[in-house]
């Protein structure tokens, strides 16, 4: 069982399940509220939960032990996450969850392209075929 908890596949599938619940819960939750304010509430909840996890598990690190490059990219990641959440909640407010979520998952396609371009990652022909199918599927689900 320990091997399952140490596999990236387990955590990726768990992430996908929680992401699906995020879309459903958010769509219901933003019915009578501004989408930006809803994003703020969600962010505060996440901050509190993560602070509790880091505090109770003893994972806190001294802030001055973090390299400046790490700070830079974590701040950039945080800004990108915030922008993504604002756009996602706005899209959910306007559109159907079953259409918004698959289009949001075009991020998978962009990660593959950016990983090759900026991180030097290599994708095989079957990998690229999978990326193309994800893109095609997202477009077809969003099509009206």
TrEMBL record:
This is EamA family transporter. It holds the Pfam family EamA. Residues 7-142 form the EamA domain. Keywords: Membrane, Transmembrane, Transmembrane helix. It comes from the Bacteria. The chain crosses the membrane at residues 12-30, 37-58, 70-88, 100-119, 125-143. It comes from Devosia algicola. InterPro entries: EamA_dom, EmrE-like.
């Amino acid at each position: 069982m320990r091997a399952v908890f140490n596999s990236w596949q387990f955590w990726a599938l768990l992430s996908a399940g929680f992401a699906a619940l995020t879309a459903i819960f958010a769509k219901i939750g933003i019915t009578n509220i501004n989408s930006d304010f809803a994003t703020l509430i969600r962010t505060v909840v996440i901050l509190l939960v993560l602070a509790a996890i880091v505090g109770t598990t003893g994972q806190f690190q001294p802030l001055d032990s973090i390299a400046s490059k790490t700070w830079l990219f974590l701040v950039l990641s945080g800004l990108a996450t915030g922008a993504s959440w604002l756009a996602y909640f706005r899209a959910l407010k306007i559109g159907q969850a079953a259409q918004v979520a698959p289009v949001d998952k075009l991020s998978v396609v962009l990660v593959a392209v950016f990983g090759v371009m900026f991180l030097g990652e290599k994708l095989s022909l079957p990998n690229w075929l999978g990326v193309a199918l994800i893109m095609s599927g997202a477009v077809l689900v969003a099509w009206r």
